[in-house]
Amino acid sequence: MAREIAGLGEILRDITIDPSPVARDLARRYGYLPYMIERYIRILGDEAIDLLNAMENPSILRPVARCNSLRIGCIELERRLSRLGFKTRRLEWAPEAIEIIDHPESPSIGATHEYLKGFYYLHRDYSPLIPPLAMRLGRGQRILDSCAAPGGKATYIAQLIGDEGLIIANDISINRLRSLVSNIVRMGFGSIMVTRIDARRIHKDLRLTFERILVDAPCSAEGYIMIDPDRKWRTDQRDLALLVRREIEILLSSLELLEPGGILAYSTCSIAPEENEYVVSRALRHYGEEFDIVDPGFSMWSRGVEDLLIGDIDPRVSRCIRTWPHKHGAGGSFVCIIRRR
Questions:
Q1: Against a cut of 0.85, is the pTM above it?
Q2: Cβ atoms of 122 and 115 closer than 8 Å
């Protein structure tokens, strides 16, 4: 990377916003840090209240059993789950996805024989399925998942390429790597190789380039406050700036490994624009015209937000995808597809 990224002070100046009296009042009522509410108001206007109410409702998230179609037919899996007492429905846009509408007292969806046999991966909702589907995957490709644990997206990628190709599934955390390896073995995928590298320097330690890369960046998880209310106040603006700097470093390092014409999916489980549109904009600015954002081809979700009044946001982020809990019945997430020219 020829040019240095911004220092922490510059990032903090870019993302710092002053909450309005309305934001401060709502922050007291709902228990948030005021700057977070100010963002929601700027992006959503009157819908900010709908978002805050959705974040109070954990039941908005419906688990998804992603059928491992290389081991079992998805219709057969759905039948088996039905016989166990689960009420399900298939997602039209993701044929392997079986959404759990209702469940018996026993067994839990994560303790069935079918789960233990690797017939499905259990996602907490459908939003993690979006990045692999947007990557335009094909058999035989060389693919990097820079921050792969616990393996939901890496195993889905392997499934989508028919387990034919090479997937480097990387993570830095030993504990999370255990979960990653366990899921790979349980589901029986042979195309995945596991590495332990700091993703901020992965371009220095891997001597490969890739046709497809996924950067599912470690983030604040602000899109899932409904299952961890402490996230309402855990991350102040300086802590957020530290996260943003790490996310920029990971994205820039991964972009170095992308082949010409290749595609990188940048995703988070956060609704914070600082971790999403701002990070992508900084990466594009760093590389000039070498990279572009391409439309992912989905129309059922919201788009990235240009007018954020933080930093210098690239207007091309309007081609990115956002899911909102109050609009889409899923965790808040962000997906952006970046192509190397």
A1: yes
A2: yes
